[in-house]
Design a protein that fits this description.
There is one protein chain. The protein folds into 3 domains: 205 residues, P-loop containing nucleotide triphosphate hydrolases (Rossmann fold), CATH 3.40.50; 94 residues, Translation factors (Elongation Factor Tu (Ef-tu), domain 3); 106 residues, Translation factors (Elongation Factor Tu (Ef-tu), domain 3). The chain is built from 9 helices and 24 strands. The strands form 4 sheets. Strands 1, 8, 9, 10, 12, 13, 14, 16 and 17 form a 9-stranded mixed β-sheet that branches. A 6-stranded mixed β-sheet has the order 3-4-2-5-6-7, sandwiched between helices. A 6-stranded antiparallel beta barrel has the order 18-22-20-19-23-24. Helices cover 19% and strands 34% of the residues. It has 435 residues and is α+β, with helices and mostly antiparallel strands.
Length: 435
């Protein structure tokens, strides 16, 4: 079996971004323009796009049709769900989440932005910064999206005026400062005509910054999780099989953060049992080391009890109690389901590869998504509500604060009655014991 000296690292060529904006800000048109101008649509798609646009009485291509895939959406002229699109350029690969603009679809914005590296907030140059613009920026910041791009669209409808862009930029910058957003970028553009989307055009020459695509191609989103503490949630077990070159029991999963090396002393949580790494295996062969986000099989030197949902961490961190299984967590929760929260009965918390029973024992406050202020006194949560809650876990959970590690700080809430996903959560803090 060959031994590979270096492991795979985070792919700097892949960027996930979510696009959000108020109704009729041109979000779907912008994404369609990106796909069209970057030559990321097939010829048959283009022909169908042209025919559909003509049937609707439009003299030019309606780029929004590339993302508004449902007939109901096309008839209403709105996007009502999260649509994912994929494209690439010679510089980078992209995954786009096109999220709705309506306030009642806050849950979809949360879904689309939860794994994003960048959030694009569209602003209509004629309308300026709206409450919905602030709402989307707030949600992106709440979800820990590292970069925020403010795309001031429809500059063609304000005669490409620089002072209009500067006014919107100054107003949004003041809001972003209060929000605590650190990496905010601003681009004026016309999605309809293509200015400053993929090509610069000749009507926004006063803007010296990159086009939207150039910005997305060059943003640094490669914060290396390999330097964080080791987090390896066990997903599957593989029994010894000499015919497959597996002499020991293997534990399959994806490294969510950190680096693991052959010979490392590790602890399995929540049991606290210890061992050392005997082998690191992949389909391509054995590794000397591996780092996030590589999917691997770990073999331990000792035959100890390890199950799906356990977390393998470095022994030194466990001994220093840098990672203690939680019995209670405080979290931000976004309720996703039409059926409201019922605090009289337990739910299931799905976190990485672990599922535990839990009670949502307190609602500390809800967040007024319009005023961006806390509101006390809620006794339940309805669809699209966002709240700070206290959760008691029936079994210990190995987790992190979402602000520190998104992968091990996020969870979903499942109703055991019908296995429906009813909420998504982000852990703020944890404690080992229920007080």
């Amino acid at each position: 079996m060959k031994l590979l000296e270096n492991s795979a690292v985070i792919d700097p060529d892949l960027l996930r971004f979510a696009a959000a904006g108020s109704v009729d800000d041109g979000k779907s048109t912008l994404i369609g323009r990106l796909l069209y101008d970057s030559k990321s649509i097939f010829e048959d798609q283009l022909n169908n796009l042209e025919r559909t646009s003509q049937k609707r009485g439009q003299s030019s291509i309606d780029f929004s049709l590339l993302t508004d895939g449902l007939m109901a959406e096309r008839e209403q002229g709105i996007t009502i769900d999260v649509a994912y699109r994929y494209f690439s350029t010679p510089q980078r690969k992209f995954i786009i989440a096109d999220t709705p603009g309506h306030e009642q679809y806050t849950r979809n914005m949360v879904t689309g932005a939860s794994t994003a590296d960048v959030a694009i907030v569209l602003i209509d140059a004629r309308k300026g910064v709206l409450t919905q613009s602030k709402r989307h920026a707030y949600l992106a910041h709440l979800l820990g999206v590292p970069h925020l791009v403010v795309a001031v669209n429809k500059m063609d409808l304000v005669d490409f005026a620089e002072d209009v862009f500067n006014k919107i930029r100054a107003e949004f910058a003041e809001f972003a400062k209060g929000l605590g957003a650190r990496h905010v970028h601003y681009v004026p553009l016309s999605a309809l005509h293509g200015d400053m989307v993929v090509t610069r055009g000749d009507r926004l020459n006063w803007h010296r910054g990159p086009t939207l695509l150039e910005l997305l191609e060059t943003l640094d989103v490669s914060a290396d999780r390999g330097y964080d503490p080791l987090r390896f949630p066990v997903q599957l077990l593989a029994w010894p099989d000499a015919s497959r070159g597996r002499e020991r029991r293997g534990y399959l999963g994806r490294i969510e953060s950190g680096t693991v090396r052959v010979g490392d002393a590790v602890t399995v949580l929540p049991s606290g049992m210890t061992s050392t790494i005997a082998a690191i295996k992949t389909l391509d062969g054995d590794l000397a080391e591996a780092r996030a986000p590589l999917s691997i099989t770990l073999e331990l030197a000792d035959e100890i009890d390890v199950s799906r949902g356990d977390m393998i961490v470095h022994q030194a961190a466990a001994e220093a109690q840098a990672q203690v299984p939680a019995r209670r967590i405080e979290a931000t929760l976004c309720w996703l389901h039409a059926r409201p929260l019922d605090r009289r009965r337990p739910y299931l918390i799905k976190h990485t590869t672990s599922t535990v029973k839990a009670e949502i024992e307190s609602i500390n406050h809800t967040i007024d998504i319009n005023a961006l202020e806390p509101r006390a006194g809620a006794q339940t949560l309805a669809m699209n509500d966002i709240a700070k809650v206290g959760i008691r876990l029936y079994q210990p959970l190995v987790c992190d604060a979402y602000a520190d590690k998104r992968a091990t700080g996020a969870f979903i809430v499942i109703d055991p009655a019908d296995n429906a996903t009813v909420a998504a959560g982000m852990i703020e803090r944890q404690s080992a014991f229920v007080h």
